[in-house]
Specification:
Layout (H helix, E strand, L loop, with lengths): L1 H11 L8 E4 L2 E5 L5 E4 L1 E4 L5 E5 L11 E4 L4 E4 L1 E6 L1 H8 L2 E2 L6 H14 L6 E6 L1 H4 L8 H4 L7 E5 L4 E4 L1 H6 L12 E5 L5 E7 L2 H5 L7 H17 L2 E9 L1 H12 L6 E7 L1 H7 L13 E9 L29 H12 L4 E6 L2 H14 L10 E4 L17 E4 L1 H15 L10 H6 L4 E3 L10 H10 L19 H7 L2 H6 L17 E4 L8 H5 L3 E6 L2 E5 L2
Length: 548
C-alpha cells in the first residue's frame, strides 16, 4: 500500500523542465570512467539534462535547486540500452496478430480465428510470433493448417525469429507463387513431396510473399512507432540500436522527431548499403532531435536463423543431415559491402549465427582491418554458434560481440537438436567472449524476444529460464557476473554504437538517462532480477514514463 501511494504521488508530479535538479536518497549504481561499478546516494542534474555530479550520503547538497525528488531509498541505475532491436517491427507486432504466447498449433488457429473475426478490414491479415518448436509440432506449419480459418483472405505470419513467414493459399495466389517458383539465392521455399510450396518461405524467399503485401499507411506506421516507444520505456530501455532501418522507417522517425514525439534514443543501422547511402550519404549523420536519432552504420546478413535451419553451419544439421543452412553472401561480396561502408566511416554490423557464418565474417574483418585502420568497432550480431577454435579471433581488430542472453534460454533445446551436444562448446559463449577481451554488448533482438532486459540479466548470470531449468544452468561455464551483464546493457552497449561520450553511465557530462526500480537488482537472486520492474524512466533529466 505504501509503494502504491508513493507511485500515485509521483504520477501526479509534472515532469520538471530542464533545470538544476536533484534525485536524492537513492540507492544508486553506475560505472565510473574506468569501468568500475560505483555507488551513489544522489544524482545532480544540470540545466542541459546532463549529470552534473554524483553525491554520497554525506556530501553537501546544493542550497538552491529548481527541483528535488526524494526517491526514499529506491534503486537508481543508468537507463538500459538494447544493442540489437527492431523498433518498427516491435510496434507493428504489437498492433497485429501476436502468436508468441501460443503453445500449440490449435491455440494459434484459435487466435487467428478470433483476430480475423474481430477485424473484417483490412483484407490482408498480418501477424507473427509462431514457433513450431514451442508448439511441439515436429514440422513447419503449412498453408493447409490455416486456409479454412480465413477462406479467400490473405494471411502472412512471421516466424518468431523473423527469418521465415507462413502464408496461406490466398496470399500465395496473390503473390503468384506456384510449384514453378524457384528458390531465390539465400532463401528456401518449403515444399511437399510433389514440389508444391507448403506455405513457409525462409530468409530471402520471404520477399516473394512480402512484396505482395499492401504497404502500411503512414498513420499506421506513426502509431507503430509510438507503440514501440511506449513498450521500450515501460521496460526501462532508454536507448536502442535499430538494426535494419529502412528508408520508410527513417521517415517515420524523422516525422516523430519533427513533431517532438521521439522519446527513445535510436542509433540506426540502415538495412543495406543503398538505404545507408540514400539517407546518410558520405558519413554517419549528426545526432538529431537533441540526441534522439542518429544513423551510424549498416546492417548486413551473413546467414539465417537456427530455428528455420537457415544458420550457416560448418557441418550438416544433426536433425537434417542434408542441410548446412544458407550462406547469404560469398566472400568477395561480403568484403565489398563492408568495404563500401567502411570507406566513408560507417560502422558495419553483420548478422552471423552459424559457425560457418561467424568464421567467414571473422576472416573478412581480419582482411579489411589491414586497410581500414583506427577505431572501427566491427560488430558481429548474435555470434550464437561459434567454433571454439574461432573464439580467440573475436578478441582482435576491435570486434564487438553483440549478443542476446534471452536467445540462449529460448533456443536451448532447439540448439541441442539442431547441433547435437558435441558442437555446443562455443554456443552463446558470453564468458568466453569476455575472457578473450571482447567488448560484449547485450540486447534482445525484439520483437523476436521481449525487450524486457531483466529476464536477460537473470539469464546471463544463471543460464536458466524462467522455470529455473536446467538445474545448475545450461553450459554453466559461460555464466557471467551481474556487473558484467549490467555493463553489457549500459556502458558497452553505448560503446558499441559510438555513443559512450553521451549515454551508458551516470558520470558527469553524460545525459541523465536513468531508471528508478522497484528493487535492488544487485542484492537480488536471479529469480528476483527477472521480476524487476521500472517505476520511472527518465531521459535527459526529464521524466518520460511512470508506472501506473
Amino acid at each position: 500500500m505504501i509503494a502504491r501511494r508513493w507511485l500515485l504521488g509521483l504520477a501526479l508530479l509534472a515532469s520538471p523542465a530542464l533545470a538544476d535538479g536533484l534525485i536524492d536518497n537513492a540507492n544508486g549504481y553506475s560505472f565510473d570512467t574506468k569501468g568500475q561499478l560505483v555507488r551513489f546516494n544522489a544524482l545532480l542534474i544540470d540545466d542541459q539534462g546532463k549529470v552534473a555530479k554524483l553525491l554520497g550520503r554525506d556530501d553537501k547538497r546544493p542550497d538552491k535547486l529548481d527541483y528535488r525528488l526524494d526517491v526514499k531509498g529506491r534503486t537508481v541505475i543508468p537507463g538500459l540500452i538494447d544493442a540489437h532491436g527492431h523498433v518498427m517491427g516491435l510496434g507493428e507486432a504489437a498492433l497485429s496478430l501476436d502468436l508468441s504466447a501460443t503453445a500449440t498449433l490449435a491455440e494459434a488457429q484459435a487466435a487467428l480465428r478470433k483476430y480475423s473475426g474481430d477485424r473484417p478490414t483490412p483484407l490482408w491479415i498480418r501477424g507473427g510470433g509462431w514457433n513450431q518448436e514451442r508448439w511441439g509440432l515436429g514440422r513447419f506449419p503449412t498453408a493447409t493448417d490455416i486456409d479454412a480459418i480465413t477462406p479467400g483472405r490473405p494471411v502472412v505470419l512471421d516466424r518468431v525469429d523473423g527469418h521465415a513467414v507462413l502464408a496461406n493459399s490466398a496470399a500465395m495466389a496473390a503473390a503468384g507463387i506456384s510449384a514453378r517458383t524457384k528458390d531465390p539465392a539465400g532463401g528456401r521455399i518449403e515444399r511437399d513431396a510433389k514440389g508444391n510450396p507448403t506455405g513457409v518461405f525462409v530468409d530471402a524467399a520471404q520477399d516473394l510473399i512480402l512484396n505482395a503485401v499492401p504497404a502500411m499507411l503512414p498513420r499506421d506506421r506513426d502509431a507503430a512507432l509510438a507503440k514501440a516507444q511506449e513498450i521500450l520505456l515501460s521496460q526501462g530501455i532508454t536507448a536502442t540500436a535499430d538494426m535494419g532501418t529502412s528508408g520508410d522507417d527513417w521517415q517515420v522517425m524523422r516525422r516523430a522527431g519533427d513533431a517532438g514525439r521521439l522519446r527513445v534514443r535510436i542509433i540506426s543501422y540502415a538495412g543495406g548499403i543503398p538505404t545507408l547511402l540514400s539517407i546518410a550519404g558520405t558519413g554517419p549523420t549528426p545526432w538529431l532531435y537533441d540526441g534522439k536519432l542518429r544513423m551510424i552504420g549498416v546492417k548486413l546478413y551473413s546467414d539465417g536463423a537456427l530455428g528455420s535451419r537457415g544458420a550457416w553451419l560448418k557441418a550438416p544439421y544433426a536433425d537434417a543431415p542434408g542441410q548446412k543452412g544458407l550462406q547469404f553472401l560469398d566472400d568477395a561480396k561480403l568484403r565489398n559491402l563492408m568495404s563500401r561502408a567502411a570507406m566513408d566511416g560507417f560502422q558495419t554490423a553483420v548478422h552471423a549465427i552459424g559457425d560457418a557464418a561467424n568464421a567467414q565474417l571473422l576472416g573478412a574483418i581480419e582482411e579489411l582491418a589491414e586497410t581500414y585502420k583506427g577505431d572501427r568497432r566491427w560488430r558481429i550480431e548474435h555470434a550464437q554458434i561459434v567454433d571454439p577454435a574461432d573464439l580467440p579471433r573475436f578478441g582482435k581488430n576491435g570486434i564487438i560481440a553483440s549478443m542476446q542472453p534471452v536467445h540462449q534460454t529460448s533456443d536451448r533445446t532447439m540448439a541441442e537438436a539442431r547441433l547435437g551436444p558435441a558442437r555446443l562448446g562455443g554456443a552463446y559463449a558470453w564468458k568466453s567472449m569476455l575472457d578473450n577481451k571482447v567488448p560484449l554488448a547485450f540486447g534482445s533482438d525484439y520483437p523476436v524476444e521481449s525487450p524486457n532486459p531483466f529476464p536477460a540479466l537473470a539469464a546471463a548470470i544463471s543460464r536458466q529460464d524462467a522455470t529455473g531449468q536446467p538445474a545448475g544452468g545450461w553450459q554453466p561455464q559461460q555464466v557471467i557476473s551481474l556487473p558484467e551483464a549490467f555493463r553489457a546493457f549500459t556502458a558497452t552497449a553505448a560503446y558499441a554504437g559510438f555513443a559512450e561520450d553521451r549515454i551508458g553511465t551516470l558520470t558527469p557530462g553524460r545525459m541523465a538517462d536513468f531508471l528508478i526500480l522497484d528493487r535492488d537488482i544487485f542484492t537480488a537472486s536471479a529469480t528476483d532480477i527477472r521480476a524487476a520492474k521500472p517505476l520511472e524512466t527518465w531521459i535527459g533529466g526529464k521524466r518520460v514514463w511512470v508506472a501506473k
